[in-house]
Amino acid sequence: MPVHYDVLIIGAGMSGLGAGIRLAHYGRKVCILDRHYLWGGLNSFYRLKGYRFDVGLHAMTNFVPRGTRNAPLTKLLRQLRIDYDELDLRPQQMSATWFPGKRLRFTNDFAFFESEVAEQFPAQADAFRRLVKHVMEYDALNLATPEFSAREVVSGFLSDPLLIEMLFCPLFFYGSAVENDMDFGQFVIMFKSIYCEGLARPTEGVRRVLRVLMEKYKGLGGELRMKSGVRRLEVAGSKVTEVVLDSGERLTADTVFSSAGYPETLGLLSDYVPGSEGPTQGQLSFMESIDVLTKEPRELGYEFTIQFFSTTEKFHYQKPEELVDVRSGVICCPNNFCYDRPLDDNLMRVTSLANHGRWAALPPEEYHESKVRWHGLVLDEVVKIVPDFRPFVKFTDIFTPKTVRKFTGHVNGAVYGSPVKFKTGRTRLDNLFLCGTDQGMLGIVGALLSGISMANMHVLQQA
Amino acid sequence: MTRQEIRQAIIDILADIAPDEDTANLKDDVSLRDQLGLDSMDFLDIVMELRKRYNVEVPSSDYPQLATMTSCLDYLSPKMA
Questions:
Q1: Could you tell me which of B50, B55, B9, B14 has the C-alpha nearest to residue B31?
Q2: Which pLDDT score is estimated for B81?
Q3: Which residues of B touch A78 (CB under 8 A)?
Q4: What is the pLDDT at residue A459?
Q5: Is residue A390 within 8 Å of residue A358, measured between CB atoms?
Q6: Integer angstrom CA distances of residue A200 from A82, A88, B12
Q7: Are A290 and A53 contacting, i.e. CB atoms less than 8 angstroms apart?
Q8: How many domains does chain B have?
Q9: What's the rounded Cα separation, in Å, for the pair A184 and A182?
């Protein structure tokens, strides 16, 4: 007989861990399956040449002080019974969005951002206040609201196209699976998470978050099986009846949660019909570089935590024609958060839009050379915005959409998954639910809340 | 359980759910939602903790009975006697 679980969860990322902790806390027999040997999914970590690197996490959004009511961070800490201090969140110094001739700065104090907008775009100050009021009053958590264009709503308030582009730029980069637009509900969630709340990072980076979650999960008796990829979900009638691992082992469960993504999960079903996933294959992927410097960035006169930039007035958030779009990106300096002690390494990370198909089609002998060449081209643009750190680089690691594809399993290496989201988590099968990226809540806090709310809705409230 | 014991049991649950709130000085007739900033997810947790710890079932139609400490005690006393 196969081993039976109350709930099997595909993927040991943030959403799978969030769901797993909730279910284990309330006595469910639960097991998380993951193909890789390291957990974390999109937000993971690795060691290379003695350096400890993070992937995914630049910063955690949704930062609020301890005990702030009605904030997503407080909700998730309550739901997971994690104390605020366990995550060791250190607030950012200051971030900005950089466009030709303009820099819009923001901190974890929203009043500062409002005054910055009023100063940089005086003619838009009143309209911006009205937009903020609308955002604050909008109920973005209602799962029943249909999706509609955030660009249309925002354009109804603001008339300066540059301000519109600059407001959207960080929100696109940190969580839009749709090219050049996003759902307005998603806009509201992300606007609050980045501008109204703020950015923070544990001193140890994502390792800290994952360690806290994993200790919690295992302490509650939750099982974790790494190197256990799911090959197939056997379907009979309207249910998943068996979960078949790559090893051939079979497991059964009353309920299956999948954080693999919508088209990826459908592809696992034994009765999958190619094409039945519809237009759910994401297109947006990234190249990311991590440069290790011999000097602290602040010794070079650099104090920003994160800068989002576009060197063109119109920001192109779309799959580039070439391997990489060097016109825009995100520059993250993990050293520039408010820590008690300096980090072991001096790091500059740059994220740029990239084309998965082009990277995947490269002959193996050109792959490495292309990474180095495009990284150079990206830095040529980046040093227009930050002090030229290139003479101080002692080590560089670069990952491409191919790397994202390999470690997340997402079709096209699409970091934010499907452009169509499935907010209720329901699928055509009665006992199979989505959590994570394609359920639609993004970022570390969002993904954890995705797992939590799917566990609540589809298992705990059903009891 | 006595009414006083049930009150302490509820306070213990609330302190686990909302550790950053002042659960030691609750006013019995003011809504818990307002005093502790609770939302619907938190009320679900109160109900599930009652089930987990004391085997008490609270059907969703009865959630309004948990609005204040006094109403909690009135509602739970017969179930937890």
A1: B14
A2: 80
A3: 17-18, 41-42, 45
A4: 97
A5: no
A6: 17, 9, 31
A7: yes
A8: 1
A9: 6
Residue A234's identity, in one-letter code, is: E
Could you read off the pLDDT of A98-122 as tens digits, one per residue? 999 999 999 999 999 999 999 999 9
Residue A375 CA to residue B18 CA, distance in Å, equals 47
User: In whole angstroms, what is the distance from residue A440 CA to residue A419 CA?
Assistant: 9
Name which of A69, A84, A461 is nearest B44 (Cβ-Cβ). A461
According to the model, what pLDDT value does residue A146 have? 84
- CA A425 – CA A143 distance, rounded (Å): 10
Query: Domain with B74 in it: what CATH number?
Result: 1.10.1200.10
> Taking CB atoms and an 8 Å limit, are A78 and B42 in contact across chains?
yes
- In angstroms, the CA A308 to CA A331 distance is 6
Cα(A24)–Cα(A28) distance, rounded to whole angstroms? Answer: 5
- The domain locations on chain A are 3-57+205-280+419-462, 92-201, 283-415
* Rounded-to-integer distance, Cα A150 and Cα A389, Å: 37
Minimal Cα distance from A66: which residue of B? B20
pTM of the model: 0.96
> For position A442, what pLDDT does the model report?
84
Question: Is pLDDT at A463 greater than 80 in this prediction?
Answer: no
DSSP string, A373-440: HHHHHHHHHHTTTS---GGGEEEEEEE-HHHHHHHH--GGG-TT--SS--TT-B-SSTTEEE-SGGGT
| Structure tokens that stand for A132 in this block | 């903020």
- Cα distances (Å, whole numbers) of residue A37 to A12, A20, A32, A255, A406: 10, 18, 13, 24, 13
Quick one: pLDDT band at residue A316, thresholds 50, 70, 90? very high
Sequence letter at residue A400: T
Which percentage of chain A shows pLDDT scores above 70? 100
**Contact between chains at A70 and B17 (C-beta distance less than 8 A):** no
Architecture of domain A3-57+205-280+419-462: 3-Layer(bba) Sandwich (3.50)
Residue A334 pLDDT class (50, 70, 90 cuts): very high
Contact between A49 and A241 under an 8 Å Cβ cutoff? The reply is no
Give this complex's ipTM.
0.95
